[in-house]
Amino acid sequence: YLSMDEQQVMMGHKTGSYRSHAKNKPIKTGVTIISVCESKVGYLRTFMVDIGVIDKSEGKKWPYIKHLASYCAGNFHKLVADNWFLAVKLLKWGLENNLYVCGTCMRDAGQTGFPEDIVSKKGQKHAREEILWRWAAPQLSAIRRQDTGSVHFLSNFIDPRVEIKMKRWIKHKGRSTHDDVKAPLVADVNNKYMAGCDQSDQ
Q1: Residue 106 and residue 150: Cα distance in Å, rounded?
Q2: Would you say the C-alpha torsion 156, 159, 161, 165 has a positive or negative sign?
Q3: What letter does residue 120 receive in the DSSP assignment?
Q4: Contact in structure between 80 and 1 (CB atoms under 8 Å)
Q5: CA 38 – CA 45 distance, rounded (Å)
Q6: How far apart are the C-alpha atoms of 63 and 80, rounded to whole Å?
Q7: Structure pTM?
Q8: What is the pLDDT of residues 25-35, one digit of tens each?
């Protein structure tokens, strides 16, 4: 398994044109890179420096995503990515280039291609542990799971019908308990293998 995510690299130069600030990263100020790492050990495979929009016709994300995904393609690697990167466009490209892809995605159906009929609308309430999914040929799946909020997943290799039990801390009447909750398999895969780039940051 490989993971794709953004990282901050320390930079001493104060006037660098690519200098950025990310309060949630271990390195708060530096250069943002988009990297592909080994999910288990955090070994850095490849990366690109985020320099902004490369090709306006393709948008900001796709040139970076396609270049880095090309490094993983051809060997049936499993790539786990998150909201910034994942869209149906990448899933289809992966199937054409022998790359399996899954992870969380944004709820913007127009941007990600997520099915509009199961997208969680702003302010909409759902039952806890509710799971809805859609499956499109040949093997594209879109899943929405209700946790503390709605989480949207996309995959081109995981069966959306497969459900598992996951341990979660749940607050009830002021107490927290470590209980089993129902979740789709893709949620478990995402939790296990998305942290490769975070390990590389340490």
Answers
A1: 10
A2: negative
A3: P
A4: yes
A5: 7
A6: 18
A7: 0.83
A8: 666 677 888 89
